[in-house]
Automatic annotation (TrEMBL):
<feature type="domain" description="BRCT">
    <location>
        <begin position="39"/>
        <end position="117"/>
    </location>
</feature>
<dbReference type="InterPro" id="IPR001357">
    <property type="entry name" value="BRCT_dom"/>
</dbReference>
<dbReference type="Pfam" id="PF00533">
    <property type="entry name" value="BRCT"/>
</dbReference>
<protein>
    <recommendedName>
        <fullName>BRCT domain-containing protein</fullName>
    </recommendedName>
</protein>
<dbReference type="InterPro" id="IPR036420">
    <property type="entry name" value="BRCT_dom_sf"/>
</dbReference>
């Protein structure tokens, strides 16, 4: 049976009943606690970065992305999924995004992605 501390943690952080927790060893209980914590810490939303837009357009696109469960980031990283470029998008940022495997879209392609869920192909 799990000791008092892991039992209390699991009672507050999981949907397990007292009887379910009572059947766990301390090692099993702690393993479950750590798996719950690591699952919550990960943010697996698609990442999008907006560049080359005016303030109002960028705000509009950022809000649209947030409303549709994208994670809006400020820079190009290895985890970036989409770089959405406006009229003033810098070529270095686009080059870096492509090198890291992110898909580069324009504003209309991003809006279509949000509305339809379809990812524009690279030959459109």
């Amino acid at each position: 049976m799990a000791s008092e501390k892991p039992t209390m943690i699991l009672m507050s952080k999981s949907d397990l009943s007292f009887d379910d927790i009572g059947g766990l060893t301390d090692a099993e209980a702690w393993r479950l606690i750590y798996s719950i914590r690591s699952n919550k810490a990960k943010d697996n939303r698609l990442q999008v970065c907006f560049t080359g837009f005016g303030i109002s357009d960028k705000d509009y696109l950022s809000n649209l992305a947030h409303d549709n469960r994208f994670k809006v980031v400020a820079s190009v990283t290895k985890k970036l999924d989409y770089l959405v470029g406006g009229a003033n998008a810098g070529p270095k940022k686009i080059e870096k995004a492509e090198a890291q495997g992110a898909q580069c879209l324009n504003q209309q392609e991003f809006i279509r992605l949000v509305e339809t869920g379809e990812v524009p192909s690279s030959n459109e």
